[in-house]
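Researcher: Next sequence.
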Amino acid sequence: MRGLSEAFPLDEASIQSVLGRPVADDPARVADILAKAHDMKGLEDEDLPQLMAIQDPDLLHELFDTARWVKDQLYGNRIVLFAPLYVSNLCANECLYCAFRASNRDLPRRALGRDEIAAEVGHLLGQGHKRVVLVAGEAYPKEGLDYILDAIRTVYGVRRGEECMRRVNVNIAPLDVPDFRRLKEVEIGTYQLFQETYHRATYARMHPRGLKADYDWRLGCMDRAMLAGIDDVGIGALFGLYDWRFELLAIMQHARHLEDRFGCGPHTISVPRIEPAEGSATSEHPPHAVTDQDFRKLIAILRLAVPYTGLILSTRERPEIRKEALRLGISQISAGSRTNPGGYEDDAFEGGAQFSLGDHRTLDEVVCDLAQTGFIPSFCTSCYRMGRTGSDFMDMAKPGEIKAHCHPNALSTLQEFVEDHASPATRLAAERLLAGSLEEMEPGARARAEHMVARVKEGERDVFC
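Model: Next structure:
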């Protein structure tokens, strides 16, 4: 077992104790918890089982309405868009639910070279993306971590006219503190890593071989990242491996631990559900499949429990589920995704993908749909580039000050998409949304936003405050 001085002590016994208490629909208790949630200071572990247990349609409606209200107060109608960029599907682990696992001999393996990575980035820029999360299987070519660092530099170095990727988030295997410092030096945005399942026994069954079999090394990863100075981290679980209620409470423990130790919890929490993966019987029949109704509940509960944390939903989910989830608390979504290396350049080839997609729409189609339903598609990356990260971001978010930047920046980036990438239908929907959004803003913010949008219309790019 590798050096574990930085692992946090997940208390499984306390989670099982909380979940073991009998809970029934109790309108009065639910009302008290939802009233507490309106203060937007989060919820305690003891509050969550009562919300998890809700079955009554009227109480569910109240839960979802409260989540919508909190989401609107903190994020408004902005939705941040990004794309995953898979640079390699080489992997030495044996994760039973994943197509990348080492024993899957039928999967076409590929690690992109610099020119191939640049070509993928060029295609994403051509769609209008400004933010990617770089993903790789947990085995690298002979260069090791240097392969990932070079890939990140390559992404930042691609130019398509005046366009470039403005933020590269990273989802790669756990590192030690010195290597995390090297990762920070190439100016990543958020470092993401999912525990997959926080339930130790299930984790052991799902990861029988490979470095990933070391539960504690993975669990302590975010501590090491933050000790290395990476203050924007993203956590999550793969829902369907174990009881979603346990995973949610474990995520809460993890988030609270990071906040207590470093003064800042996770910047984002991701909520992927298991989707079919090539050659994986486990992915076809998840051991603890999460129903659509429970999925809605867990998103709403997370929004109330950690109100200032971004919630991410990928293209694993169907469009109709994604649309509902946006109203319940999701603040970031991927769009036009491919989960195989080289998948953007060769759009017709799906071999080597990590899992099946539920949403096959293009970025333009997603932007159009968001605009037609009243959400502002945002390509903003200004907080990272202005140093509003980690505890500095939370210091502005909690009193509501961050919205003074987010709303104008969202409108500016949407106008940029309209000018450079939108189809006629998307342009029409976005222009209507832009006009209505500006009309609803208070005078000072409106004047600033109108000035920024006008600069974009006049040909300026990357306008932010």
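Model: The chain has two domains: 72-385, 401-457. The two ends are 46 Å apart (CA to CA).
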